[in-house]
Specification:
Strands 1-2-3-5-4 form a five-stranded antiparallel sheet, covered by helices on one side. Strands 6-8-9 form a three-stranded antiparallel sheet, covered by helices on one side. Strands 7-10 form a two-stranded antiparallel sheet. The chain is globular, with a radius of gyration of 21 Å. The termini are far apart. β1 and β2 form a beta hairpin. The protein folds into two domains: about 100 residues, Phosphorylase Kinase, domain 1, CATH 3.30.200; about 180 residues, Aminoglycoside 3'-phosphotransferase, Chain: A, domain 2 (Alpha-Beta Complex). The chain is about 35% helix and about 15% strand. The chain is built from eleven helices and ten strands. It is of the alpha+beta class and about 300 residues long.
C-alpha cells in the first residue's frame, strides 16, 4: 500500500525533526550545536561538537533507484578532488512512511558556498581558486566508476541527451556522445566554496558526457558575462571537444526550453552561444562554409 504524505509532513522546513536529529546524534555519538541547524525542504544539516557537519536527508522509497543515494560515501574514494572528508553514516527506513532517512558526517567546508546556483555578480575568485577547480575536475574525469550521473535527479543517458537537445535545437548535427567520464553532475555556484576551493553535494555524481560539469558551471554564470567567459577560458579543453559542445547545447536547452522563465537574464547569452555551437556541430558534420556543402563536394571528400 502506498502511504499518503501531506506537503507539511514532507517539508523539513516546517516538519518537527527533533526526534530524527536525536536518533542521528545517538547513532553517530555526536551532539548538534543548536544555533547551526539549517533546514531545507528535504534536508537538514547541523554542526557537531567535534567540529564536523552532518547532513540528514529524507527520501521517498521510489526516489531511491539503482544509482542509490550514497553519493558522498562513494565519492570519498576519489583521488585528487578537493572535497570535505567523509567519516560515516547512518541509514534507516521510516516505520510510518514509505521513506528512508540517511545522515552523512563529514568535515566542515573549507570556506563558504560561493553563492546561489545562479550568480548575479562576479565573486572575484583568485587564480588559485581557478587552479583548484581545474585540478579537481581533471582528477575527477580521470577516475573510474560504475555510477551513472543524475543531473536534475534524472539519469543521464544517450536518449535523454538527444531528447533535451532536439526539443530546442533543430537537426543537421549528430547528438551521439563519444566519451563518458565521471562528473559531479550538479556543479553550480551553490556547491563550491571560496576563498579556498572545495566541491560538495555529491549525491548526483557518476558517468556523464565529457564536459557536463564545465557546461553546467558556465550556464550558472551567464548572468555575469565576464564570469561566464572565465569559465569557458579555464575549461576550454572541455568546451573545445565535440561532447563539450553537445553539453553546451544540453545546458542551454534547460534555459531555453518549454519551461524557461521569460525574465531569465541567461536566456539571451545562452541563445547566442547555442546558435554558434549549432553551426560548429553542423560544420563538423558537413564541412564547408556555414556548415553547408554541395553533393559533389561531399562525394569528393568522402
Amino acid at each position: 500500500m502506498t502511504l499518503s504524505v501531506s506537503a507539511s509532513q514532507a517539508d523539513l522546513r516546517v516538519r518537527p525533526v527533533d526526534e530524527v536529529l536525536d536518533r542521528v546524534a545517538r547513532s553517530l555519538q555526536v551532539r548538534f550545536l543548536p544555533d547551526t541547524v539549517v533546514r531545507k525542504r528535504r534536508i537538514v544539516g547541523a554542526r557537531t561538537d567535534r567540529g564536523t557537519w552532518v547532513r540528514v536527508e529524507r527520501r521517498p522509497l521510489g526516489k531511491i533507484t539503482a544509482q542509490g543515494w550514497n553519493g558522498a560515501e562513494c565519492a570519498a574514494r576519489l583521488d585528487g578532488v578537493a572535497q570535505p572528508a567523509w567519516h560515516g553514516c547512518v541509514v534507516w527506513r521510516d516505520a510510518d512512511e514509505a521513506v528512508m532517512w540517511r545522515a552523512d558526517e563529514s568535515d566542515l567546508l573549507p570556506g563558504d558556498p560561493v553563492g546561489n546556483a545562479v550568480l548575479s555578480e562576479d565573486p572575484g575568485l583568485s587564480d588559485e581558486w581557478w587552479g583548484g577547480l581545474n585540478a579537481s575536475l581533471d582528477a575527477l574525469a580521470a577516475q573510474r566508476t560504475g555510477r551513472v550521473a543524475t543531473p536534475d535527479s534524472e539519469t543521464v543517458t544517450q536518449a535523454s541527451v538527444t531528447r533535451s537537445v532536439r526539443a530546442v535545437f533543430s537537426g543537421g548535427f549528430d547528438t551521439a556522445v563519444r566519451r563518458w567520464v565521471p562528473a559531479h553532475a550538479d556543479l553550480n555556484w551553490a556547491n563550491v566554496t571560496a576563498p579556498v576551493f572545495g566541491l560538495f553535494d555529491w549525491e548526483d555524481w557518476g558517468n556523464a558526457p565529457e564536459g557536463l560539469d564545465s557546461a553546467s558551471l558556465w550556464a550558472s554564470s551567464l548572468a555575469v558575462p565576464a564570469l561566464a567567459d572565465r569559465v569557458r577560458y579555464e575549461r576550454r579543453r572541455d568546451f573545445g571537444t565535440r561532447d563539450g559542445k553537445l553539453m553546451t547545447l544540453f545546458v542551454c536547452s534547460k534555459i531555453l526550453g518549454p519551461y524557461a522563465h521569460p525574465g531569465d537574464p541567461r536566456s539571451e547569452p545562452a541563445r547566442r552561444m547555442a546558435e554558434r555551437v549549432v553551426e560548429e556541430l553542423r560544420a563538423d558534420m558537413w564541412p564547408g562554409a556555414s556548415g553547408v556543402v554541395s553533393a559533389r563536394e561531399f562525394g569528393e571528400k568522402y
